[in-house]
Design goal:
alpha+beta, about 55% helix
Amino acid sequence: MSGSLNNIYNNVSFAMNLHSNAMANLQEQASTGSRINRISDDPATAYRILGLNTNDKSLGNYIDNLSEVINILELSSTVIRNITSAFTETQIRLTQITNGIYDEAARKRTAEGFNDILEQTLSLANTKYMDQYLYGGTDTGSAIYTAERTNGKITRVTYDGSFENRDIEVAPGIESSAFYIGDNIFRSNDRDSPTFIGNTGAAAGTGTSSVRGGVWLTVRDNSGYELSIDDGATWTAAGGANTTVTNSLTGEVLYVDTTGITGTGVDMVSIPGTYDIFNTLITIRDVLENQKGLSEAQVIEIAKSLPSSVEEISNVLVNAEVSIGSKIGFLDDLEHNLKNLQYNIKDETTRLQEADIAQIAIDLSRREVLYQMSLSVAAKLMSMSLLDFIG
């Protein structure tokens, strides 16, 4: 008898607890909107959701990196476009000068304008994004272009940045350069044979010179011809068809054929394919100011050769802008694809985790009916007396 009553009580209690727990779980799902509120609710699905959440966070990091890289590249493209505009203006002014529109006084006034462009270009090349210099490669913490000045005017600009691109991972297995190497962006690197413009008779030697851009070669007669490319800081005796003339300030060398030298003076030596934005502007300014005391004819002759160096740099800048623009386009597409993938992951996570409120309402109603039925049955069973068993 006792065992039968205990069994009845245990069974009734189990059924009541079963329905009560089920209703509590359904009510929790209805209130949270989530089908899985703890791993024990559905271990397999919970594990899948955890994996999806991990992928979602990873994609979010990549998308943030992409956005950052695109912002940097867009600013970089804008800077290059502004420098290109400055060189376009330079070409226009040079065309007017070489066409004989400007006299000597006007040329000197124009030289001041080129000096302003030079200062502006230096400032643009040292542009920062979030306290990081755009064109320093992996070295973005300090100014990458340093100017040497004489009487307040820039006479030389050196690149102090890194020669390695700074890459950022923007997708699994994909890296992109955000901070470029300024020495690659703002300099031509297609060296050609030097061209000598002047009356000394000096010509290009047979060796491969290391000087870049425009160089002033001074020839003097000191019981024999001597040559200098560092404004007379050091002199080299003429020594045949391949004389090595060294700039003591930079260590660069110019190979000169001295066999045809017939007189003293100053020649402009242009090395096509090696100009940078600063050397070009410095050379133009110095020619127009006639700092070397050249004749009017020499100034005009040299001035006529200057547009080729401006065009060379303009082409370099255009190529850089096109390259960066193409990269921005690629990264924009990649960002779009990653966002679509992230959306799909979020959508799948929602489908796995989100509760079906309509179905919950049906299940909750069914459980309540069963619970009420269990209560009714339990009441009848628990109301049985000893006489009911005896009878």
